[in-house]
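=== RUN LOG ===
request id: a7f3
mode: sequence -> structure
chains: 1
length: 391
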Amino acid sequence: MKAMQIAEGVYWVGAIDWNLRNFHGYETEKGSTYNAYLILDEKVTLIDTVKEGFAEEMLSRIRSVIDPAKIDVIISNHAEPDHSGCIPAVLEVAKNAKVYAAAGAGQKDLAAYYGDIGCIGVKAGETLSLGKRTLTFVPTPMVHWPDNMVSFMTPENILFSNDAFGQHYASDERLDTECDLPEAYIQARKYYANIVQPYGMQTAKALAACANLPIQTICPSHGIIWTKHIPDILALYKSWTSNEYDDTAIVVFDTMWHSTEAMAHAIENAFLACGLKPRLYNLHYCHNSDVIADAMTAKYIAVGSPTLNNNMMPSVASFLTYFKGLTGNKKKFIAFGSYGWGGQSPQQVYDQLTACKAEALLPAIKIAYKPSEAQLEQITEDVVTAIKAAN
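=== RESULT ===
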């Protein structure tokens, strides 16, 4: 395992997790990387570590440039175990290394995971001289844990950005100039939607705190490193934190005998008639984390479920739980569904979306058994009328 040089004396020494497919309910179909960075200076410094189980991969990369026993400083930008999991393994070989983390929250979290490791707390604006280089610490609480911070290194002007600007994206390419860039943007959007979106306000504050930094390189904790395309990823984050909508609508549903599916297509036709770009997600086939990436920027959301045992389908209940925890902007919504004799599910969907502080376009739509062509046409007409009235 070899380290990859980012700048003179600065190396990526992380690990690639090709097999990761789920991260806290987020489907990581492209795997991930756990990024750690080594700085060779008067104080040899390691920025973050990797997930437990990948210690030898990281240490092997460090050994390709220096004996890990010579590490003097470990910066923990975030205590979550995919970032900090191998701090104990590094301390086993680097006996004199000092660990630095956000004062208070960072110290507390690391102690909860690893006991008393003598962690030194750093506050906003504090600096640490490494020799020729200086690290400045900027707290970014709740992006996406209370302990989060970023570290900015001069004179190379490298921002070690922690979870911000990251992607769950495994590849052998480390830089935005050599990777599949469209895929990196897709994964950055999905990462923001599933990890960072609930904390959009805090993320906007973090962006503002970093706005005046002369950033030349962004080194996140997951995925590729941003060099040439920094203005682009910054612009995307500004858009996402501003909760900007695009001209899309999403229709999310599960179906038993295709009746709710037929209603979904009737609603799709209404969105098309209003000049919107609808995207349909059958939850039997689509993962919540993929739906959320489109839901984040869609202006409208329609959610449908047949009634099963006096309740909505479990897949729809799962999606609505996921949606409630992640949505950062207030949608206009439609609840719909079919039923045999009870018909509780459409109203349950309606109530759940209302609890998310979304705004109903019209009352819950429900149809018994199989909808007729006339009923489907009426759904389309009613939804078109409601959309026009809302604009």
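=== NOTES ===
DSSP finds twelve helices and 24 strands in the chain.
Residues 310 and 370 are 18 Å apart (CA to CA).
=== END ===
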